[in-house]
Amino acid sequence: MNQIPVMIDCDPGIDDAMMLTLAFAREELNVLLVTTEAGNLTIDKTTYNTLSFLTHINKRVEVAKGLPQPLLRKQEVAENIHGESGLGNVTWSEPTMEASARPAIVAMYDTLINAAEPVTIVATGPLTNIAALLVAHPEVKPCIKQISWMGGAVVGGNMSATAEFNAYVDPHAAELVMRSGVPIIMSGLDVTHKAYITRDEMTRLRTLGTPFAEKVADMMQFYTFTQRQTPFHAPGFAEQIRIHDVSAIACLIAPHIYDGDDYFVEVELEGRLTQGATIVDYTKQSGNEPNVYVLHSVNRAAFIELFFDAVTTIGKTL
Ligand code: BDR
Ligand code: CA
Q1: Structural domain boundaries, residue 257
Q2: CATH number for position 26
């Protein structure tokens, strides 16, 4: 099988952990490197969680620690959603591996330069590391096939009425990446609010019969509760648990279950009410060349199938 080489940049985070589950469950992907972002939690916590979760699912890969804060803004975390530990206060394994001696940007650079073919970057946090990489080493751009990012939204937000968390936390990084010329797939809230699991499905996770599936269900239960508390929630939040980051991997494995289109996208840096909003030229009237493939919708049944399959596959290996 021709595997897709990927590097994953994430900030676990409950849905980031579910994204890692799908990534490591699938033979279509060859994960070359995992890097961490300061996002849902401080960089120390997201790095610890990445090491802990990968130890638990028994996947050994280089994990390199990212930058400790957004490019310009003060860091804002989302412990209100992911819990103080960041993984729904569920205990995963004590890490048996250490973070790489190389900082994320050095590890990303080396991985890209030495890869046999262009690599896909999967980004499920703020884009701080990737922006810094592209500014410091623009020569790596031809080594990047595309960036599959969970972030932004055509309409609405979850940090403010107009901004999604990953874009809001480091809008300057997001804008640098949007402008980079590297092909981007954006799984924004438009699609991730359609890629949810219901409470009934969450209960069904427990019938998979593995300790791993039980822990995943516990984590989801925590997430159900906290997602309901967010002020900028969409209707139906109480019944629908959005596992946003999973789409950034699912759209690579099963592009046919997603619909989208190419648009010109910029990020608002100054707005009084709109800071961190991804401004999508939806009517295509600006005359600007599209720079982002924006996903709009997903076949939810097929998405859930992929998710359950991943939890089953990983659960059986432990
Ligand atoms: C994004 O924000 C984070 O809290 C999640 O992990 C996801 O990446 C959703 O807006
Ligand atoms: Ca995330």
Answers
A1: 4-317
A2: 3.90.245.10
